[in-house]
From TrEMBL, chains A, B, C, D, E, F:
Name the record gives this protein: Manganese catalase family protein
Signal peptide: none
Membership in a protein family: Belongs to the manganese catalase family.
Region named Disordered: 229-287
Ranges annotated as biased composition (Pro residues): 261-271
UniProt organism field: Spirosoma soli
């Protein structure tokens, strides 16, 4: 279960409120690379965990921390919107076109729906979507999803860092960027453990499926679908076409794409599905 | 640009059509771990690529291959629905409760909307969603998203393999599982190249942001948010709390969660946002 | 910021695992009347709060409690899915039609995507949607949204209670139903305070907008749109057509629906919007 | 503006309530081919209409009629769910596996969220989505969307007709199927008028754009992307590769797909977008 | 069933067309607090109503009225977009940066997709979503949803009123604000009737569930999750921690949050769900 | 299966990069009238096709071509965003309000999430949605959906053409507009074939349902729902109220809307659905 503290995990200061930046921060709250997603993702992975227990514990710890990051960002949105209060009415009703234009870059729902508060949505107002919460029951697959989330999240945070010169916002983002560094590292630590010190043992994921059941002709073959004979990759000795496979279990090869199956043959339309009569007649006359 | 061949990449046979299994296959077509997502994800990463060119080429090759996988799975859905034709009407109108019950497990939209054909949706009929297509402009972040997609995709395919005893379906899935093995490997090969042979050089992602700008107090510290003094992880020497960080750039440490920021103080409600009068009065009397 | 405890807020026991009931429980996790929604709704209302502080504190307290309810329900889903392990493979591959039929009522993504774990989705697999998180900046409007959420949530919980005879599940639901009772009461307590002891003072919401600016002819008039002269409500003395208005500020009246505005007249199609030529010609010839 | 009558447009009778059929009917309420979509689509087209007025009037008439169809279908759902009342509790708690299995085919939200009432969702519980409401400002484009909506809607209704043997439901569907016949015809009548009696004059839509601005080399050429030399369509004299074009303005031709553009060349990654360092270095060294 | 009148319920005038304001009005059409939602919500509640009949009648009346409000707002959007016609092309192609900037605040889909007409979407272009239509089968729960919808709707309308100085728009909004006043009152009138004159009898909702089945230890206890010992609410005598409960059925109490359940124990991973081998081995070795 | 060529189908040049135009182009990529939709729609129709084979072949050809159009547009987005690189940082941080304002019209996720690359979303950042992919199993219904898609798509392309003065963009759009011309024609060619040269034989769709089963009283009757006696359409001799029906099978007639069904009577609330007690009592006392 959960507890809270009225204090923030890290201080949030805004020297010069900027409603446009408030809109950009929403991507880090409710976007696919944002904090609601990682918070729920780590917690669902913990709640669904069937062992080992030490991973469940870590997921609960970090999922709980992410909740504090949503709080910091929502607070930053609210503080950036405060600056909008003085001029908003005058500008939107059109008295000053330049200021109006700047205001035009804010999310209008910050005022209309939120009364100058944060939303559970991204920088375009698209709502957070629960489909982004990945919890597969396979720890390695989950950890790659987590590394990806922290990577695209850190990319986002560095871009936000670039787009502000407010010292308070830069300080807050410096904190969040640092936490993403740690989180990338800790999910990799799990992968290292799962691979007994060598990430390659982790693959192919899931590694509990008997690999001899997979088609042995195509499992380490790069399929080149490029039709242009003047730009073949065949023979170019790429890392993914030659040499030992990354999982250490085979050799990479390459092939030009070609059909291994026939043209599909479906049965004629069922009468009860009400295709057009002509369709049915012709399809049956072919059979 | 793109070309097609009327033949399939690999043969698709269904010996005993099964409309329930057709529903399950939809997850591999239109689910978050399905083929429409990886097809579009690799192609958008290619189209957005600003170099190196060899990664763009590979992404185009494999994105094009994934289109053929959607085709195989859609064909498998259509073939599995054929078996439903004989009995469907009788059973749904209620003459045979057991058969009706089995039919109950199919996606009714396979008949109602698709006329016994595949949909761009998951196993619950939830439509494919473009938000799943990740293309960040940072190759390492993208590759982790790709490894995750192929990992959760291979997990899904092995579970589908478990849920059928149709030899044709097992054969098709064996092919797709093998391709997932290759694709996991090839995205890892890019990460290996990006890290000059050591995946750890890749991190923290993005590695082009000056790391000295991130908060140095918290970037390699595991935050333990567990409030229960009887189950501390502090002192337990986990891989993510002690020793060299996975990226090789620091030492892991651990701290108990504690606020580093004050309780937030927002301004009082703006009159123009029309909070309740009592709110405004009390908030202002506090200020 | 937030802390957690590895223990649950209340015990979760499942005596006879039931994957169909696991599916039903998802509505209470990721549905519009579920716990993710109230958790995020109360927390966003807190984070966006501009006073009074005591409401912010209460919202933080209860938002944090709701996180523990998601945890309880996710745990209940995972425990209900355990029972599926023994028979699942045999049944879905079709050896036992009755058991297969029962299994047919489970959410297939609980296995395919979740590996027998909970999802951030409703009972039909539709993902949680951030648009449900209401935080308007007007405390009274927010409290009515909260009372509604706890009312539809308690309705849902009582229906789930009806659909199980597992003593553990009944016990857990009895706890959650009780908490909904408290939460309905506490949001009403805020409304009582806002209305100085009389809920009617709260209305019309927002009560800070000068009511004289609203159209005085129609603000306490029930509009009867029923066209059938044989079933008029006019003259039937309903509570909403006669007597003092509920907010105590006027008298209810009733009117038959009739237009107060003219037929709308839009300008002709703009050339640059490329309507059909015939449209443009005829529209202009009318003008 | 709008009025209502407590009576239905056409009678709705259910002799043998069937909760599975209630679920199927939802597709005709909240699905992409359902009645909420056509109701809103025709009304938005009317409200956005800039002439001719007689099309606006017709759209208002029929949009209003569609509202009555939603009402009939929602009533049919509620009546089909009544039959579930007697046995529901016993069956879902597991006492009778066969009945439970049949119940398993109902939408659980009909009980959990709706208390045995209809939802604004499709047969899989996926909510109605406003993106389906097409109103382009070009009457011909809109009419084709309307013909499509009434075509897929009539296909759906005939399939529902097939799936019930309840005389009341068959009678209601016979009414709705007939109305779809009329509505297909009336939208075609508009197209006939727009084309001065010949549908071909309507095309290409929009016909107000100066056609000489479109690329004259490719506007009546069928592009054959098939790579397999053994199955060319070239030379097969299809209706879309030879003869006068359907719009009567040119001759159809055919070409094998081939690039008309070069390989795209994007600039190197911008420093401020934080790609990986290696990417940036290599991309710039190529430039 | 339904009828229409070509005249509007109330006049809609725009003196100075403003495409930015057209965008803002969309929130009142297709947003969660908008008119499509209340229209469908009241109608579905009516169609699903199983008594008393007088509530069904009122819901039909007001649902029908709301349709006329969508019409007024869609007309207002179309009229506000007319002003964009003269300058649009010049400005977006960049000849005048200031005007271009102002145009930048409009919804581009008003032109691209709608040809200067309204959309079934909110102020950010996010489509209307059927999940917002609440109809629970419990009249009290439904009425609270309705009061909330009219409260957040009136908040929105007052903010729109603030953002325009067009006399026609102010007049239209004054009408809509007035109707929201009435609608708040009429839903409260139903709650008053349901409570026999005292709203408190309504709670806890649903009041038909035997309250003795809910956990008696926690149903009137405020759970304080705040971990900070320096800011306890315990002892502060809030309205929600002391005194008679609002529903009049008990006394409020308060407790500090503490676990009432154990740490959850899930079974080990099922082999058929293909967790990583190491996971399975370690989890089983613990058991 | 599918192949690709690194070259584009047609050249994509941008002389003056314009991030606002990049946003507008997104509508043609990920909007409901965009290229991802038609690409997947034609391919799913092909994969689900049960004959005639020549339609399947054509759908594969054109679906494959559409993939190349997504590629062209994504490339155009990336090239239009290049121009943003020089000034972006300076402007968004607020040093130049006019430039900042122009930047305000771009999609911030093009930078934040895409690193200056295209997204699978529309001009407002709303993700592509798989529900738009129509494949009914009835060729005529599908073809009308295809004609509609190419009509609204061509309308969109002509509007984009209007909004740019970049010669490269105008050239690319001229190509795409031309292809839409061809595609409208080719889907109409199928309808012509299905109707044996007369489109009217196609209707009513599906034409394989025995038309005598539809209600013969209402299938060619226009229902006039207009309540205003001063603006009747009755007697006005519209094309849809008099004369031969468009499908040639009957005569159009007109009727004023009137109920053909009684007021619906639902049973009282089920006890187990937990309506309010008062509801249940009153509803039963009426029965």
């Amino acid at each position: 279960m959960f507890y809270h503290d009225k204090k923030l995990q890290y201080k949030v200061r805004v020297e010069k409120p900027n409603p446009q930046f408030a809109r950009l921060l929403q991507q880090a709250i409710g976007g696919i690379e944002g904090e609601i997603r990682v918070c729920l993702q780590y917690l669902f992975q913990a709640w669904n965990s069937r062992g080992p227990v030490r991973y469940r514990d870590m997921l609960l710890d970090t999922g709980t921390e992410e909740m504090a990051h949503i709080e910091m960002l929502a607070t930053a949105v609210a503080l950036n919107l405060e600056g909008a209060s003085g001029d908003l009415v005058d500008t939107i009703v059109g008295k000053d076109p330049i200021v109006a234009a700047i205001m035009g870059g804010m999310d209008p729902r910050h005022y209309l729906s939120g009364g100058m508060g944060a939303l559970a949505a991204d920088a375009n107002g698209v709502p957070f979507n629960g489909s982004w919460v990945v919890s597969t029951g396979n720890t390695a697959a989950d950890m790659y999803s987590n590394v990806n989330a922290e990577s695209s999240g850190r990319v986002l945070a560095t871009r936000l860092y670039e787009l502000t010169d407010d010292p308070g916002m830069k300080d807050m983002l410096s904190f969040l960027i640092a936490r993403d560094t740690m989180h990338q590292n800790q999910w990799l630590a799990v992968l290292e453990e799962l691979g007994h010190g060598d990430l390659r043992n982790v693959h192919p994921i899931p590694n509990s499926f008997p690999q001899e059941k997979e088609n042995q002709d195509v499992n380490y073959v790069f399929v080149n679908t490029n039709i242009d004979p003047s730009s073949p990759s065949v023979g170019q000795n790429r890392r993914w076409t030659h040499g030992k496979s990354i999982d250490g279990k085979s050799q990479f090869r390459e092939m030009k794409a070609q059909p291994m199956g026939p043209e599909p043959q479906l049965g004629p339309p069922m009468p009860s599905a009400y295709a057009q009569t002509e369709q049915i007649v012709e399809a049956n006359s072919k059979a």
